[in-house]
From TrEMBL:
Locations listed in the record: Endomembrane system
Protein known as: MFS transporter
Gene Ontology CC annotations of this record: plasma membrane
Signal sequence, start to end: none
Cross-referenced SUPFAM superfamilies: MFS general substrate transporter
Major facilitator superfamily (MFS) profile domain sequence ranges: 19-430
């Protein structure tokens, strides 16, 4: 009987697949936005007369915006609901992208790219919270992991579309390239029309009647609040209260593992040709190597997505950090080795780090309750982008000042720090309900026992 089935145990439906497209579009735009500026910059710099300072600042502007947007998006999504904030990102994508077509200065371009970054930062908490709060238990991890693959798809589309526009559009083609994001933003806005509010968020605000109506609409007339594990209000619990109650350790875990997984990836992905050149690979080796590494990043994420349920979150994360860290260590030790060995080790890193990449959006959405879920994802997004910006900024300086060997050792140390933190703090959430995954009952300490009794009533 449907009356006895949890909404987390239902088969995946057309609604769930459409929701994955609706939420995944944000990750696709993220990859597109962060990549299109690099392609257009060859024409932007001479057209606007940019100095090296402004070139670097504009290149980093979206990352800076994501830092602020993550905090803002998380707080706004938890306070005002998932559905309202769902349309903020697409709206900003359209407005800022169209405005870039008429940009006349580096300062103006920086502001518009910064606002676009804020839109991307807002997307992470709202899109993933929507997805995890509707998705069946078995599909939750793979669907969240798919968003990482869509990031690479967006980046690939930027290279294809941007290259075509620059080749066909003349000296002002860069304006069309930067404005092209508006097309994706408009499509994202349209496809999200009709998305209902999250019943879990409504219930956390005491709006039980609205939550039940949406459950019936999505899952069928025989379903209701009785089929949702979350049963009570949680509006009296603040973010700071919950962190003090024991979720601070989980926030530290998410922030550290996410940051440790993105610093080497952003550095390697952004400067693959320069890194390969430092490893004595040039010409065709460097060109084909860069393409192969990009493809292996995607392959690694695809394989990890398939293993996120079977292997489990914790094991997948530990193996990902361990083997990718060892690959970086060997790259440092064998930096003067044969070209084929260098490419194999680089490829191994790209392949194995896929596990940590896909779990960046899975873990924070599963181990925090509804009332602070989006806020936790927002903080993780913002803090990890600091690491990404630092890694991207420092890699050319490091290659020039200390050389490729020590640079690879530093990258390996960061990766193995992620392994160490994950070993002590990473929980296993596969096959658990959203309520159980977010509960602290299995790790109670004297500090958290005073809330563990009531907590099971309002998590999930």
């Amino acid at each position: 009987m449907a009356n006895n089935i949890s909404v987390e145990d239902v088969p995946i439906s057309r609604f769930h697949r459409l929701l994955t497209v609706r939420s995944g579009g944000g990750s696709f735009v993220d990859g597109y936005v962060l990549s299109i500026i690099g392609i257009a910059m060859t024409q932007v710099s001479p057209a606007l007369g940019l100095s090296a300072f402004w070139e670097g600042l504009i290149a980093a502007s979206a990352l800076i915006g994501i830092f602020f947007g993550g905090f803002m998006g998380g707080a706004l999504t938890d306070r005002f609901g998932r559905r309202r904030i769902y349309f903020v990102g697409p709206t900003l994508f359209v407005l800022c992208s169209v405005a870039q077509f008429w940009v006349q200065s580096g300062e103006m371009l920086f502001v518009l790219r910064f606002l676009t970054g804020i839109a991307v930062g807002i997307e992470y908490p709202v899109a993933t919270a929507f997805l995890v709060e509707f998705m069946p238990k078995r599909s939750r991890g793979p669907c969240l992991a798919t968003l990482t693959i869509l990031w690479f798809a967006g980046a690939a589309m930027a290279y294809l579309a941007g290259g075509a526009i620059l080749n066909l559009g003349g000296t002002d083609a860069w304006r069309w390239a930067l404005a092209s994001t508006a097309v994706i933003g408009a499509l994202l806005f349209l496809v999200r029309l009709g998305t209902p509010e999250s019943p879990r968020w409504l219930l956390s605000k005491g709006r039980a009647a609205e939550a039940e109506a949406i459950i019936r609409r999505v899952y069928g007339a025989s379903f209701g609040l009785k089929n949702l594990s979350q049963q009570a209000e949680s509006k009296k619990l603040s973010f700071l209260h919950l962190l003090h109650s024991g979720y601070g350790k989980r926030m530290a875990f998410v922030t550290i593992f996410w940051t440790c997984s993105v610093i080497p990836v952003f550095a390697v992905y952004a400067f693959a040709p320069k890194v390969l050149e430092a490893l004595h690979l040039s010409g065709d080796w460097a060109a084909y190597g860069s393409i192969a590494i990009t493809l292996l990043f995607v392959v690694g994420c695809v394989l990890a997505t398939r293993m996120v349920n079977t292997l489990g979150r914790r094991k997948l994360l530990l193996h990902s950090f361990l083997w990718s860290g060892l690959a970086l260590l060997l790259l440092g030790a064998l930096r003067d080795g044969p070209s084929m060995v260098i490419l194999i080790l680089f490829g191994a890193y790209a392949l194995f780090i896929g596990g940590a990449q896909v779990l960046q959006l899975v873990y924070p959405n599963e181990i925090f309750p509804t009332v602070i879920r989006a806020g936790a994802v927002g903080i993780g997004t913002s803090m990890s982008r600091i690491g990404a910006a630092v890694g991207t900024y420092l890699i050319p300086i490091s290659l020039q000042s200390i050389g490729i060997g020590p640079t690879m050792y530093i990258a390996a140390a960061i990766t193995l720090l992620g392994l160490l933190v994950s070993w002590f703090l990473a929980p296993e959430t596969a096959a658990r309900s959203l309520e159980d995954a977010a509960s602290l009952d299995d790790e109670s300490t004297p500090q958290t026992q005073h809330v563990s009794g009531s907590w099971s009533k309002h998590t999930g």
